[in-house]
Specification:
Layout lengths: L4 E2 L1 E4 L2 E2 L4 E2 L3 E7 L4 E4 L5 E5 L2 E10 L16 E7 L7 E4 L22 H6 L19 E6 L8 E6 L7 E5 L8 E2 L4 E5 L2 E9 L5 E9 L7 E5 L7 E9 L5 E8 L9 E8 L7 E7 L9 E5 L5 E7 L5 E7 L9 E5 L8 E7 L5 E7 L8 E7 L2
Antiparallel strand pairs: 1-4, 2-3, 2-26, 5-29, 6-8, 7-8, 8-9, 9-10, 11-12, 12-13, 14-16, 15-16, 16-17, 17-18, 19-20, 20-21, 21-22, 23-24, 24-25, 25-26, 27-28, 28-29
């Protein structure tokens, strides 16, 4: 198999001379259908057991006149998952069989007209209840996934669990409002014991707008959650979509998607890294591992490699559009130049990755992608051994 060459550069727009060989890199289409808009794996999740991988995302209808995202807001979105049995080399798609209020699209309210939103059913009185029994988060094949309505004040979030590698799902189970004006949850959490799970979520800010990241914890198997701390100060723009892990020394790290507030959507979009040395009670800013993520910004994944390096993977929404990575050998204090995993995207409407680590040290990143501004949006993956 030919070994692709991966180019590094020191900062956006500045390509450093030289090529660097990597063990291998392979790009694969995970899900693609003509006329469909498949997107945003970061809003859902990815899980693996050896060579078996499941990634979840959402699928709607493509509409070239849809705006920043070329989706048709008058048609429903549905939750889909793709499964690979060979470490991400090939994939098959299947329904994501999780019940949603009103049977509407999971975590897609901001992309559809009001009558298609989950929030319309919750406003009409349908309720999401806590888990009736404690959940063992350390069960061998248990995974959990967060769902939500909107992004700002009034947003409601909940979660699901699966005990059989995502073939069936239980829930929805309430996360509660934690005394906050709204919670826009994506799947991000750390299991610390059979009944203890620390979750990282985004709340509406004091002005009701999206968003400010916080962490919460359950110690009774998901029956109740308690607010633990804010991660960073309330921003002028937003901090959203955390990606978190625990280091071997017990410290917590969380990478936040950040944006300034301004008249231009490209008025500053980057990634910040925070650290907690007291089990999530307080946080300090470590640095800015990605000074720019392009037009409108993009979330990251954060993975600890077998040699204890950290790997950050994120979409990049300026030309050359694509997927990028950075590596750290000192627990996030400093980061390598960008690794351009791919630069063949057709426009800004891509990214939102999820990443899983295979037993041999291979990373599999799943994200949404496009070939041109007018083309359908599809789910792709990259296998890469840093």
């Amino acid at each position: 198999m030919h070994t692709p060459r991966v180019r590094f550069h020191a900062s956006p727009g500045t390509i450093r001379a030289g090529w660097f060989e990597r063990d291998f890199m392979q790009h694969t289409v995970v899900y693609r259908e003509p006329g469909r808009y498949a997107g945003w794996p970061a809003n859902y999740g990815i899980w693996s057991w050896g060579e078996e991988i499941v990634a979840a995302f959402t699928v709607g209808s493509h509409h070239p006149g849809g705006g920043f995202h070329t989706r048709d807001r008058t048609r429903p979105f549905t939750a889909v998952q793709a499964r690979s049995l060979d470490g991400g080399r090939t994939w098959t798609s299947e329904p994501c069989r999780c019940a949603t209020p009103g049977g509407r699209g999971l975590s897609a309210d901001e992309h559809v007209e009001p009558e298609l939103k989950i929030s319309s059913f919750l406003d009409a009185g349908e309720r999401i209840l806590p888990s009736p029994d404690p959940i063992d988060f350390t069960a061998p094949e248990l995974v959990w996934m967060v769902g939500r309505t909107g992004l700002a004040a009034g947003a409601i979030s909940w979660f699901y669990t699966s005990l059989d590698r995502c073939r069936t799902w239980s829930g929805p189970f309430a996360l509660g409002d934690l005394g906050l004006p709204g919670i826009a949850g994506r799947t991000d959490g750390i299991v610390d014991g059979p009944h203890q799970l620390t979750v990282f979520l985004t709340a509406a800010k004091s002005d009701g707008r999206e968003g400010r990241v916080f962490c919460a914890r359950t110690e009774d198997g998901g029956r109740s959650f308690q607010f633990r701390s804010w991660i960073g100060p309330e921003p002028e723009g937003y901090t959203i979509m955390p990606a978190s892990l625990r280091l071997p020394n017990g410290d917590l790290l969380s990478t936040l998607r950040c944006r300034r507030r301004g008249p231009d959507i490209n008025d500053g979009c980057w990634l910040d890294l925070y650290r907690s040395s007291d089990d999530g009670l307080s946080w300090s800013l470590v640095g800015r591992p990605a000074p720019s993520t392009g037009f409108g910004g993009n979330p990251a994944t954060l993975t600890r490699l077998p040699d204890d390096r950290l790997c950050l993977i994120y979409g990049y929404r300026d030309a050359p559009f694509g997927i990028r990575a950075r590596l750290s050998s000192d627990s996030g204090e400093t980061w390598s130049d960008e690794v351009l995993l791919r630069t063949d995207g057709g426009c800004h409407d891509l990214g939102y990755p999820r990443t899983t680590l295979l037993p041999d040290g291979t990373l599999v990143a799943v994200y949404y992608f496009n070939d041109s501004p007018e083309s359908d949006r599809y789910i792709a993956s990259t296998r890469w051994k840093p």
